[in-house]
Amino acid sequence: MKGVVEDPLRHMVKPPDGPVVLTCCQTTKGPLSIAVHPTWAPNGAARFLDMVSSDYFSSKIAMFRCLKNFLCQFGLAGDPKLNYRYKTIPDDPSWLPLGPDHRQNEKGIKRFQKGYFAFAGGGQNSRSNQLIVALKANGPLCGGSPWEVPWGELVGDASFQTLGKIYTGYGENGPNQGRLHREGSSAAIAEEFPLLDYILSCQIVEDGRHTR
Predict the structure, then answer these.
(1) What is the CA radius of gyration of the chain?
(2) Using CA of residue 71, residue 195, residue 156, residue 118, what is the dihedral sign?
């Protein structure tokens, strides 16, 4: 697919082959181009693409839990009514090797690479509308938690530059999930957390599922 260049040293193991759906999200720090791989995690990829197609991200999604050199969590709707739209989905089997013995391979490539996208969760079949993106390559992630199976990856130098600009200063002390669920991306949250970054929109720009 145009704009997606495969790097043989990108992944710990060879990912499942299949079509790619290229999406572009606009954030308060710039664009994020995401290559969605339906064969990596069919249920997770389908949920994200449904969120994109429904214009969910245009509700102004707070990147509310961003931990330096670890991950950024986001996904709670800017309009709190939209949080009730998405029920939980079944887990996908992991295409990455599990367990502490597989945190990196013999080449030093860690299991959960910088720019991988997955869902946040809290148990089996718990994925809904909260997502994570890795800010740095990480060995423990996707080691056994079923919700952490990657369904997509960041692509393009501009996207990684944007990722590096996302504000991580609030760390674990940003707006809590309960408040965001109730208020959405409210004016009060913006006033209290003025450096918080947001996803402003996402759209599909090229759908490899519909090409031969």
Answers:
(1) 16
(2) positive
Q: Tokens at residue 142, please?
A: 């996707």
Return the structure tokens found at 90: 């079944």
Length of the chain equals: 212
Cα 61 to Cα 3, 96, 108, 157, distances in angstroms: 25, 29, 34, 23
> For 18-65, what is each residue's pLDDT tens digit?
999 999 999 999 999 999 999 999 999 999 999 999 999 999 999 999
> Would strands 131-134 and 116-119 be described as parallel, antiparallel, or unpaired?
antiparallel
Distance CA 157, CA 23 (A): 15
- Furthest CA-CA distance within the chain: 50
d(CA 66, CA 45): 22
**Closest residue by Cα to residue 136 from 160, 120, 170, 152:** 160
